[in-house]
C-alpha cells in the first residue's frame, strides 16, 4: 500500500540537532509507531516522545522522566496504564492510572503522590470492572510525618453501588481514629452503626 516508513527533520543550528522523527506502521490502519521531538536549547533536551501501540514518555530540561503512557494492543487500543512524574528535585510520582482491557476500557485504579520531601501518597481509588465502572474504594493519606490515613471508603458491588463502610483517622501525632461508619448492604443502603473516638 506504500506506507510511509519514517520522516526526520533536523535543525539549522550549529549543532544540527534532530527536531523530530515519525515512523508509521505497516498494518492495515497504518498506525503511527513513534514521534520524537527535541528542543532547540543548548543541551538539545528531549521534549516529548509519543508511541502508539507500545509506550510513550516525556522528558524535561534535565532529562527526567515526566510521564509514561502505555497503550494496549486490542482492537480499540485502550490504555493499560499511565504514569506522571513531578518536576521536583526527586522527580516524585504524581499519579498512576490503570485502565481495564474490557470493551469499555474502564478505569481500574488511580494513585496520586504528594510533592513533599518524602513523596507521600495522597489518595488511591479503585473502580469496578463491571459494565458501569462503579467506584469500589477510595483511600486518602495525610501529609504528616507518618502519612496517617485520613479516610477510606468502600462501595458495594451491587446494582446501586451502595456504601459498605467508611473510616476516618485524625491528623494528630498518633493518628487516632475519629469515626467509623458502617452501612448495610440492603437496597436502601441504611446506616448500621457509627463509632466515634475522642481526640
UniProtKB/TrEMBL annotation:
InterPro entries: Serralysin-like_metalloprot_C. SUPFAM superfamilies: Adhesin YadA, collagen-binding domain. Gene3D superfamilies: Serralysin-like metalloprotease, C-terminal. This is Uncharacterized protein. It comes from Knipowitschia caucasica (Caucasian dwarf goby).
Amino acid at each position: 500500500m506504500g506506507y510511509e516508513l519514517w520522516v526526520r527533520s533536523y535543525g539549522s543550528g550549529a549543532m544540527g540537532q534532530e527536531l523530530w522523527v515519525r515512523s508509521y506502521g505497516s498494518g492495515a490502519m497504518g498506525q503511527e509507531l513513534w514521534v520524537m521531538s527535541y528542543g532547540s536549547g543548548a543541551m538539545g533536551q528531549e521534549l516529548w516522545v509519543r508511541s502508539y501501540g507500545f509506550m510513550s514518555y516525556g522528558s524535561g530540561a534535565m532529562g527526567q522522566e515526566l510521564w509514561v503512557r502505555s497503550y494496549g494492543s486490542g482492537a480499540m487500543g485502550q490504555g493499560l496504564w499511565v504514569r506522571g512524574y513531578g518536576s521536583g528535585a526527586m522527580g516524585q510520582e504524581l499519579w498512576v492510572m490503570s485502565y481495564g482491557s474490557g470493551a469499555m476500557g474502564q478505569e481500574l485504579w488511580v494513585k496520586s503522590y504528594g510533592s513533599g520531601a518524602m513523596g507521600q501518597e495522597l489518595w488511591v481509588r479503585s473502580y469496578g470492572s463491571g459494565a458501569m465502572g462503579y467506584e469500589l474504594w477510595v483511600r486518602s493519606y495525610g501529609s504528616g510525618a507518618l502519612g496517617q490515613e485520613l479516610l477510606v471508603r468502600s462501595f458495594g458491588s451491587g446494582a446501586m453501588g451502595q456504601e459498605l463502610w467508611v473510616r476516618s483517622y485524625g491528623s494528630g501525632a498518633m493518628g487516632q481514629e475519629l469515626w467509623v461508619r458502617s452501612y448495610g448492604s440492603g437496597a436502601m443502603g441504611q446506616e448500621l452503626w457509627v463509632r466515634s473516638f475522642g481526640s
